C-alpha cells in the first residue's frame, strides 16, 4: 500500500536533552507517559488490532441478512450472497463489501447477536470493550497488552479512539489525534513548545544526564513520599526508555493521513503494523467515524450506513492486504501473528423511525480476522424479533439450550487467543466461543 509522505521539520534527531525536557513537561502537565517496556524477540506472540466503528452500525447492511423478516426495514434491492463460507448482504452501492469477502472470507468469522444490554453509547462502548458497565475494569486490549510475555515498549497503542483502564493505565500509549506522539519522538513537539534549547558540548551533556539520573534514582528510592515517590518512580522509568525511544524515531509512521474530510483508516492501521513488526506493541486500536467523520449514529438518514460500510470495507481490504506483506520481528509473516477485531458498540433498531433513521438497538455484530481465527463462517443468528439466538459455544450452532452471546464471551475468546486464561479476567463466568478458535 502506498501512503503519502509528510516531511517533518529537521531538528537534528531526538536528543537525550530534548527527551529530558519533554519528559519533565509531560510529568508536570499530566501529558503523555511513556512506559518503560523493553521489546523482545523471544518468540511469536499473538497481536491484536481493534477497529471500532463508533456510533452503532446497522448490521442488516452486511452481517445479518433480514430480507425475509417483515419486522425489519431492509434495502428492497439488496441480495444475500456467500463467499468463502461467509453469508453477507450484497448491494450494488457497496462493491467494497463483496471485494473484501472475495479476498478475505476464509480468514473471517462473523459473530452475530451479541447483546450489550444497553442503548446509551458510552455505556455500550464500555460494556463491549470491558465486559462490564462498571468503572474499574480494563478493556480487552489493555489487559492482553499488560500480560504480554515479551514486555513491549508500547504495549497497547491507541492510534485513535477510546480506552478503558484501571489497573493497566501505564500500558496504554496514545498517539494522539494529531500525531502528538510522533511529534514527541522526532523533536517537533520540543520545537513547538517554546522551551529554549541550547547546543552544549557532549561532556556537559553527559554530566547533566548523570546528575538528572542520580537525583531521580534518589527520589524514586524514597526521597519523595506518597504521590511524589510515585512520580519519581515514573520519571525514572521514563529515563530508562530514552535510548529505546530514540531508536524508534523515524521507523514508525505515527502521523494521521489526510483522507479529505476523514482519517485514513488504512494509514492508521499501518502505524499499528509498524509497531507490531518491530515488536513494540502487542495491541492497537483505531476508530472509524464513517464518511467525513459523521459517525455511525444514524437516527436520521439511515441510508448513510451504506456509505459508511463501503468506506470501512474498502479500508479493511487495504489494511489486510498491507498486513499480508509485513514481516514480523521474529522473521515470520506478520499476518500469522495478528488478529483483527472489527466491532461497533451497538446495532440499530430493526425498523425505521419517522425521520428515516434507526434508533439504538441492544444487539450488535463483530468480525474476527486473521491469526488464530477459524474463518469462513458466520456464528449466531437473529430470531424473528431481531434478537440474537443462543448458540452452542463449541460448535457455533444455534440451539435453545445454548448460550446468549455477550461482550464478555467476545472478551473471553480474545483472551484465549492471547493465551490468557479467561477465568483470571472475566467476572461473569463467560467462556470463550471455541467455534471461532482455530
Describe this structure in words.
This protein is an alpha/beta fold. It folds into 2 domains: 14-43 and 188-248, no CATH class; 47-178 and 253-436, 3-Layer(aba) Sandwich (Alkaline Phosphatase, subunit A). Helices cover 32% and strands 14% of the residues. The protein is built from 12 helices and 12 strands. It has helices spanning 16-29, 95-104, 121-130, 140-146, 180-186, 188-193, 202-223, 227-240, 242-248, 265-277, 304-323, 407-417; strands at residues 47-53, 79-83, 86-90, 108-115, 156-160, 172-174, 283-288, 338-343, 347-348, 360-361, 363-370, 377-379. It has an 8-stranded mixed beta sheet with strand order 6-5-7-1-8-11-4-12. Helix 3 (121-130) runs parallel beside helix 12, helix 7 packs antiparallel against helix 8 (227-240) and helix 10 (265-277) packs parallel to helix 11.
Computed Rg: 23 Å
Mind summarizing the main beta sheet? 8 strands, mixed
Separation of the first and last Cα atoms: 28 Å
Count of spatially separate domains: 2
Strand order in the largest sheet: 6-5-7-1-8-11-4-12
| The CATH class of the largest domain | Alpha Beta
Number of helices: 12
Strand element count: 12
Decide which structural class fits the backbone.
alpha/beta
Q: What is the CATH topology descriptor of the largest domain?
A: Alkaline Phosphatase, subunit A
Spans of at least 5 consecutive residues with low confidence: 1-42
The dominant shape is: globular
